Amino acid sequence: MARAFVAVRCRDRSWIVDVPLGESMLAGPRGEALVAVDGIAEPLGSQGRIAWNGRTLSLRETSRAPEIFLGGKRMESPVELKPGDELTIGPAHLVVGISSPDLPATRRALTHAEFKERLAEEMARAARGGRPTALVMALARSGEGGVLLGAALDRFRAGDVVASYAHDETEILLPDTTRERALAVVERVLRGVGLEGVIVACAVAPKDADHPERLIRAARLALRMQLEERGRVPVSRPPEDDPVLDDAASRRAAERLEVRAHARGPILLTGEPSAGKVAFARRMHRIAGGGPLVVLSCARTADPRALEHALDEAAEARGGTLILDEVGELTPDAQARWLPVLRALEPEARLVVTSHRDLRALAERGAFHAELAAYLFARDPIAIPPLRQRPDDVVPLATRFAIEAGARVPVRFSAGALARLRSYPWPGNVLELRNAMERAVRLAGGGEILAEHLPGDSLAAAQGDGRLREHVDSVERDAIVKALAEANHNQTHAAKRLGLSRRALIYKMEKYGLKPPPGRTAAALADDVAGR
Fold first, then answer.
1. What is the widest separation between alpha-carbon atoms in the chain?
2. Does an H or E element contain 69, and which?
3. Closest to 176 in 3D by CA, of 214, 211, 140, 134
């Protein structure tokens, strides 16, 4: 049977309300707008009656204050509601949803590569709106992975993303969802299908990570910890963090750092995200004589309390090394706060600052503290090359990561796997390789790692020089523009023309910068509140 629900946003809160069969009160506290469909603790007011018979949804008004607006116009009572209809009641905005009853038969699990692309899109969208994104990893008992995957496809909403990670393991992306809500929803789904013994782990952006590969890593580590606690896997040793220096490009970068290891003043390491900048800095710290080592992530100091804690913790690096990771992620206020701290520490500690951003360019346009930039660039920065420019490091790193993930020693790679490791461009750098090897070990099941266990050529082409992706994006954008024009910018109708859900259409409109026309400011509401 189809499911009817209402996505509600009122002031700074948003939630989903399921509409039961029959007629229900559209209720809210006195003087407020709608907050629930029945079931509230003290139903003090009623704006209308909503009726759902499993096929159609209708609404009739029972109160004139506050008035109900449908699609920006005063509602004429009664009215039949359609999926995507937008209601406004006082400060509350609502989007009507009716799920398709035949969704489970047509929905498919994404591949891991497709899942990663959707994860990147969702994290970028959520970052713009300051909303959480939950990534859930669920491991079923041996032989029950198909039941777990089927339950996820059957019971999660169309806006949630479901993929098969490995044998008996499912990965689920829940947009606009907190950790607590994500775990509660997964527990309810598992209980509903009678699955027992499923181990569930969750990581949430931006709190746990600010990049897709880092979020995957955080979720995998959370799952690993649960497996260790249950005695399902041996307790893992701390991963090796020394960079592999088999490639000449890596050796040159390491040698430059060694030369600077005993010099005063900050050392700026530049390079792409996850290229291994902190690993190179840690190696320099050991070569320079050790002492206390403090590594602080600037991306995690957006909260004022976290910033204060980090500023205090930096003092512990006296006599050793302070690594300030990704300084370009600091807020303007934090940039100004860090400058005197670094200057005060300089006589007593080695200072290493990393960034994947062009700090000079940011400073020139006023987006980065000019004095801090001048301080960091007092000496020439040292560039850490991306993994694709260090081809001789790839296989040794892959072997190390496979062993950390539980592969038997010696690790066995097929000829095709070795060729793919060397030819794939690794746009996510060392972290992507680490994540890929963990999945490859799971897929190999203790046997030889094959080419099909690793990221494929199609993804490499899409993330390489970008020409194929640009062409596909251009065609898709033109199709969306045409469908919106033909539907008079009605997103629900345009989505039907394109064979998409309305939520998927909104994803793509944001991706291509297709803003709603003036006067339809509520059109993006579903994107704000259709999550949990």
1. 78
2. strand 68-70
3. 134
Q: Answer for the pair 170, 145: CB distance below 8 angstroms, yes or no.
A: yes
Distance separating alpha carbons of residues 25 and 35, to the nearest angstrom: 11
Question: Token pair for residue 85?
Answer: 């209809």
H/E run at residue 6 = strand 4-10
- Residue showing tokens 């592969």: 407
Map tokens 């600052």 to a residue: 353
If pLDDT is split at 50, 70 and 90, which confidence band does 493 have? Answer: confident
Secondary structure of 197-235 as H, E, C letters: CCEEEEEEECCCCCCHHHHHHHHHHHHHHHHHHCCCCCC
Tokens representing residue 21 in the block: 């069969």
Identify the three-state secondary structure at position 113. Answer: helix
- In 3D space, the residue among 352, 199, 186, 373 whose CA is nearest the CA of residue 277 turns out to be 352
The sign of the CA dihedral 186, 187, 190, 193 is negative
SS3 at position 458: helix
CA 505, 506, 508, 514 dihedral sign is: positive
31: exposed, middle or buried (C-beta count within 10 Å: 0-12, 13-18, 19+)?
A: exposed
The model carries a pTM of 0.69
104 band by pLDDT with thresholds 50, 70 and 90: very low
Q: How many CB atoms lie within 10 A of CB 186?
A: 23
Q: Per the omega criterion (within 30 degrees of 0), is the bond before 175 cis?
A: no
Is 424:454 a contact under the CB 8 Å cutoff?
yes
The confidence band for 471, taking pLDDT boundaries of 50, 70 and 90, is very low
Q: How far apart are CA 234 and CA 236, in angstroms?
A: 6
